[in-house]
Amino acid sequence: MLYSTPAYRIMGDRSLLVELGDHIGLDVNQKVRELFVALTAAPLKGLIETIPGYSSLLLIFDPFKLRVSLLRKQVQQILDTLDPSRLTEPRTVDIPVAYGGECGPDLNWVAQYHQITPEEVIQLHTSHVYHVYMIGFMPGFPYMGELPKALVTPRKETPRTAVPKGSVGLAQAQTGIYPTRSPGGWQIIGRTPIKLFDASRWPPALLEMGDQVRFFAIPEEDMAQWQK
Fold first, then answer.
1. Is residue 41 packed enough to be buried (19+ CB in 10 Å), middle (13-18) or exposed (0-12)?
2. Angle between helix 118-126 and helix 107-114 axes, rounded to 10 deg
3. Paired sense of beta strands 92-99 and 212-217, if any
């Protein structure tokens, strides 16, 4: 549910969590994005960083410059005057993926779990447009949803100690991409050659909250020509 009044939770001596709802959904995530954009466009004095999530925004502030009571008051004033029309149209980003084989070691398992063919898994995954709800876990990692119901898949019972960079995975109703080599428990069905995070560019992350993502299949032998 989207809260009529946000819940404010103190997180230590310099952080305030603003909860705008209690679920993962486009309605509450839109409100999070509106607040994030408003605070980014006109930063509050003493506010150090804003970190958006599915249904909340974590505000990190300097307690010597900004008191929690004033921060709550200022945030509420912004929420009362939010204008959705100020948001830019979301970008649509097309991402190539080599499915199966060494690039997607869990593709066959996912197909067996849903009692469909690997080709049907690929068709389902590439036929949908995904909303980027948030960036988290590691720099540039996009949490995207929702998967078609026929692809909702549990995480691995035992996470891998190392998932290759660019791996595309499924976890419950979400799909995501590992920007760098990392431990992880998502079901890996493919890999993209596109660089999701590059500290030498601005912004360093390819995707951001609110973006729309479409996947399309490429042969594994074509991976090199997509690398940048």
1. exposed
2. 90
3. parallel
How does pLDDT run across 83-111, given as a tens digit for each residue? 777 778 889 999 999 999 999 999 999 99
> Which tens digits make up the pLDDT trace of 171-194?
999 999 999 999 999 999 999 999
Domain range list for the chain: 2-86, 92-226
Beta bridge partners of 190: 99, 168
- Its CATH class, for the domain covering 2-86, is alpha beta
Of 40, 158, 69, 67, give the one whose Cα is nearest residue 106. 158
The CATH class given to the 92-226 domain equals mainly beta
